Amino acid sequence: MQQVGDSPAPVKGITLPDLVGLNAQVAEDQLKSLGLKDSMSSANPNYKMVLAAKNWKVVSMEPAAGCNVAPDSEVDLAVTKP
């Protein structure tokens, strides 16, 4: 039971690594190892679907590298074919 004046335990955040420039499969594996989810979308209008992450390269991410996020958060990765 919490007493008056006690503050709740801080939620441990996860600091996002810089994934830009990495192979998308490597980036996805890193996020999973940190307990995070990913959502990939093509940054190239000529390609609409990302079927095999290993064939793509991360060009941007949201939230940005260095941000703290809660466990199980989703990170949006924009990817393109190298």
Task: Using brief descriptors, characterize the structure shown.
82 residues; elongated; 1 helix; three-stranded mixed β-sheet; alpha+beta; Trypsin Inhibitor V, Chain A; two-stranded antiparallel sheet
Give the topology, please.
Blueprint: E1 14-15, H1 24-33, E2 37-42, E3 57-62, E4 68-69, E5 74-80
Parallel strand pairs: 2-5
Antiparallel strand pairs: 1-4, 3-5
Which architecture would the CATH scheme give at its second level?
Answer: 2-Layer Sandwich
β-sheet strand percentage: 25-35%
Radius of gyration: 16 Å
Mean pLDDT across every amino acid position: 91
Q: Tell me the total number of β-strands.
A: 5
Order of helices and strands: EHEEEE
Structure description:
It is a single chain. The protein has one domain (22-80): Trypsin Inhibitor V, Chain A (2-Layer Sandwich). The mean pLDDT is 91. The protein is built from one helix and five strands, in the order E-H-E-E-E-E. It has one helix at residues 24-33; strands spanning 14-15, 37-42, 57-62, 68-69, 74-80.
Q: What is shown here, in short?
A:
This protein is α+β, with helices and mostly antiparallel strands and 82 residues long. The protein has one helix at residues 24-33; strands spanning 14-15, 37-42, 57-62, 68-69, 74-80. The strands form two sheets. A three-stranded mixed beta sheet has the order 2-5-3, covered by helices on one side. The chain has a two-stranded antiparallel sheet with strand order 1-4.
